[in-house]
Amino acid sequence: MNILITGGAGYIGSQISYKLSDDKIKHSILDNFSTGNKKLLNPEANFFNLNFGDKKNLKRIISEKKINCIIHLAASISVPESMKNPQKYYQNNVINLINLLDVCKETKIKYFIFSSTASIYGETTKSTVSENDIKNPTNIYGKTKLIGEELIKYYSKKIDLNYAILRFFNVIGADSWRRTGPILNQGHLFGNILENIKKKNFKVTIFGNKYLTKDGTGIRDYIDVEDIAQIHIDAIKLVKDKKKSYILNCGNSLGYSVYDIIRNFEKLTKKKFSIKIKKPRPGDVAKVVCNNKKIKKVLKLKKKKSMLKSIEHSIKWKLLSN
After folding, report:
1. What confidence category does residue 187 fall into, taking pLDDT thresholds of 50, 70 and 90?
2. Which helix (H) or strand (E) holds 250?
3. Cys-Cys link to 260, which of 58, 156, 256, 272 (CB 3.0-4.6 A)?
4. What pairing do the DSSP bridges indicate for beta strands 255-257 and 219-224?
């Protein structure tokens, strides 16, 4: 198995890269540092500074390294930014993906692992969402990712390509050995809190406190970045051994409100946070929680990291490694 990670210098991609190295699996990384960071690069991986939509050079790299499996993480991922700059999201998440899939067709790539998102489900009244539930994204980011899923399905029918579409819920935490972790906060709750902790400024802004939830704030499902990395490794083995394709929700089936997250940070830091309320952001939904029965059955998932452990790793990374 010769693996190429697009976006391998990013938060999740770098964690997967280190996990592959821990498992003695050689691989290559492709990143142009539009959102990735040189600090996160795994020195044990082959590295190529390239946009994944560059068909000519991508084809050369795949041939040179005899790549037969691609983990595709390179994407624009900020919900607020997607609403302000939709053209960027359609270019990167759709047009460049088409270029990548064209190259997969030309070079006969066998396995494709795609990072999708829970944003494709949009607003829901269900307590948890499963893979077959209605997809109705409320933001441009989610729309482009849903189109990406359909493109992968389309191409898989034209070529001998087995895929795993992994729908991430909210990814948190940092590497246990502080080799990698979040640098850009992308406007996320965790990122904003961590930036303020680093500045010893114990304040947090909440966007909306009148949602129809238990405490009025948005509820999300969270999963640790090390768990996500392991899921990718397991997904490669799954599509290779079973010679089938899969769509899997990646979450813990646990809903945390914004206030829940703040209280957990307060517990670990032993600090009381000052809270400022602002109006909801365009594209945000009240609640989305994962139904993870399918992934637990298919991948035989082990026990996941706790919320407190994820927060602890995040704080250590932010204070000591960044």
Report:
1. low
2. strand 246-250
3. 256
4. antiparallel
